[in-house]
Each structure stands twice: as C-alpha cells, then as structure tokens.
Amino acid sequence: MLRRAGPSLCRFLLERKSSAGYSSYSVEAKISRPVQAQRLEGIDKNIWVEFVKLAATYSTVNLGQGFPDFPPPDFLKEAFVRALSRENYMLHQYTRAFGHPPLVKILAQFFGKLLGRELDPMINVMVTVGAYQALFCCFQAFVEEGDEVIIIEPFFDCYEPMVKMAGGTPVFVPLRLKAPKDGKLMSSADWQLDPTELASKFSERTKAIVLNSPNNPLGKVFSRGELELIADLCVKHDVLCISDEVYEWLVYDGKEHIRIASLQGMWDRTVIIGSAGKTFSATGWKVGWTVGPNRLLQHLRTVHQNSVYHCATVAQEAMAQGFQRELELYGKPDSYFIQLPKELQQKRDWLVQSLDAVGMKPIIPEGTYFLVADISEFKSDVPDVPDSDEPYDSRFAKWMVKNKGLAAIPLSAFYCGAHKNNYNHFIRFCFAKEEATLKAANDILQKWKQEKTSP
Ligand code: PMP
C-alpha cells in the first residue's frame, strides 16, 4: 500500500510515524533476539505433520490417521442441524465457559451412572475442545518445574511435549511384548507392564501417571489386575492419574472397559478424559470433557478459562442431545455405544484376516480402532540401513505410502528415547473405515504379496 502511494506520500507517512514517537525503522527492522520460548525446544517436530502430508500426496488408501471415513450417526447430525436452525439464536453465542449447561448436566448423569456416584455437573464435569485440550489443561494445571510424569509406552504422542511445555520431565515405562506362540496370532493383551519396572519409576518427584486404556496405538484394554497395580502405586506414592479414556466404548469380544477412578482410593486423584469425537465418530467437532473431583477440576477450570474459554456452543448442544438418547437406550441393542463397537469388531476381523493372509502379522486389538502389524516378512522390500537415525518402521511406512499408495503410521512414533528402536518393526493401521476403503487396502496388499512371490 505504501509503495502504491508513491515516494512522497510514503516519506510523509514515515515522518508522521516517527514524529509520533515510533521509529521509522519499524517498517523494516528484523527481530534479532530469539523468538522461540525455551520450553518449545526439541518439541517442534511432529510425526503427524509429516505423515498426514505424505498420505495426502501419495496415498490412494489412508489407514494412517485415526478418524472414521464414515459419517456420524443420523440422530447426531440431525441434532446439530436442529441446534443451528432453532429459534433459540443464543446457541450461536458464548455459553457457560466450563461447559454448556445441557451437556454438563447429561454428562454428570451419564458418568454418575457409570461410576456409581452422584456428580455435580457444575463442578465435577468440564467440557473441553476435544480430549486434546483436556490433556493440555491437566498438564498445565498439575505439573510444576521439576515434577516427573510417568508415561506408559507406546503412547499417544502429544503426552510427552505437553509434559515438557509444563516444565515437567516425562519418565517412560514400556509395555513389553511377550514372546509369540508358534503359529498363533498375538493379542494386544500380550503387551504387559513389568510390575517391578513400573514400581521403580515412582519416586517423591512423581506428580502424575498418564493411563490410556483402551490404548492407542496397540488397542490394549488394561485388565482389572493391571489397573489395580497402577492404582496401588498411585495411592502409595500420592500420585495423580490422568486417565485418557477416549476409546472407552470401543472394546471387543465382550471385554470390559474398567474405569480406574472406580478403584479403591482413585476417585480423589483421577481425572477422566473423554472425547465425543471418538464416542460419536465426529472427530472434527472437537468436543471433549473431563470428569473428576472438584479439588482437581477447579485447577483445570483456571487453565481453561485463561486459554480457550469454551468450545462451540452448537456442537455442545448437539452432543447433549446425543448423550440424552444414549442414556435412554443405555445397554439396549439400538444404542450407538453398542452398535458402533459391533460394526468396528467386524472391520477389525476383516483387516486381521487380510493382513494375516499376506504375512503382515496383526496383533489383534481388544479395543480402539487401531491395530499394529509386524512387517518383518516384508523386510526384503525395504532393506535395513543399520546406522540410520530413522527407525526401520518409519522408513518402511514412508516407502509403503510412496510405492504402494497405502498409508499407515510407524509404531516407533509412539515411543520416545531408549525404547524407540526396540519395537521398530510394526506399523499401525486404523480400521474405522468404510468397507470399500478396507477392500482397497486388501487389494493393495494382495497384489504386493503376489509380486513378492512370483518369480
Ligand atoms: N487421546 C488419545 C489416546 C487419542 O487417540 C486422541 C485422538 N487421536 C486424543 C486423545 C484426542 O482426542 P480429540 O480428537 O477429542 O481431541
């Protein structure tokens, strides 16, 4: 605009600016001091940015990022449209910061029923911008400079940078895979914590442990025994539990999702985190929540109030109606929380069979919409580079998307530090996909297998 104004007007404007106390250098001056806050150091790279771009560029079939390629249920879409078009135009305005009243009320009723305790919607529930923001609030609210936070590997990748941004130190403990039984497919239950190793990670510096059951990426659903082990250590060392339960409804083969907050001594020290995105197959709506005791949630409210303030009112209104329906149909065959896992279990079985048939050995998940598969038999296609900094599975996944048009995520992306190279021959597939997408993936795998075996 200055250039178009001509040189004399330009000079005039600059002189006016400097006579008003601004330096004329402000137009051109470069910032010479470091702009990046130190707490961002080392966390600026993100696996999703890279793999989402690769999938968009090369893949014909994307089983990488975790979201359904099918629509949310009709009742939810209809609730959203109703909320948008209703006379009540106040649904287009701000609502209560800590959660739209109809949504927190129904969440309190729903989780009160599940946990067998009375919940106050105004103090025991807080709505967030997806589970992501719920996690962010927890770390910001609880973690101080020097605090340690135990993270079970493999883990949803944002836990580590979020702990660091809060000034804390992540302490990792791996789930260890039992040796395979000859010829038998393994299950996500074969990934287990070593109780002695877990106990050794707790100290007076430990502020919290992050639990993610059902677990992304493995699909492991922690058993009561495993949860009791964690709970006992939390109580013994006076440690908080940040319980990421976004896949709580996605459990298979009659397996039960147990909420750690329901175990002895755990309600007072646990924040339950949930996601409407996963619960109702609407990840783009970004509605999440936290449930817990006021003593913990009051601090989450402080972070929330001073960061995002609240999440979209219309989406919260529609979610409230979705939960209302689910409360009425609780445990009945028409409930979405019964139907979705039933459909996903079929998709899981289909993908398991498809991968097994080509020799990419799947580890059968007990929950979530992810499974990991062993790529060892495909090593001849993407030979190892022993001294490479990049884990083998990462190079394999990149090669696969570029050369076969099939996107998946390397398991090493869910590890940090020492254990990153221990489990680097697995890739994670998402099976929350239309039948046509899964069939297209199967076609790619079958063709690949034929090319490998034909002389
Ligand atoms: N936790 C886990 C374990 C997840 O897998 C995800 C999403 N992939 C989230 C939290 C974030 O959920 P949301 O989309 O509701 O922010």
UniProtKB/TrEMBL annotation:
GO terms for biological process: kynurenine metabolic process. Residues 61-441 form the Aminotransferase class I/classII large domain. This is Kynurenine--oxoglutarate transaminase 1. Belongs to the class-I pyridoxal-phosphate-dependent aminotransferase family. Homodimer. It comes from Balearica regulorum gibbericeps. The keyword Endoplasmic reticulum does not apply. InterPro entries: Aminotransferase_I/II_large, Kynurenine-oxoglutarate_AT, PyrdxlP-dep_Trfase, PyrdxlP-dep_Trfase_major, PyrdxlP-dep_Trfase_small. One of its GO terms (cellular component) is mitochondrion. Pathway: Amino-acid degradation; L-kynurenine degradation; kynurenate from L-kynurenine: step 1/2. Keywords: Aminotransferase, Cytoplasm, Lyase, Pyridoxal phosphate, Transferase.
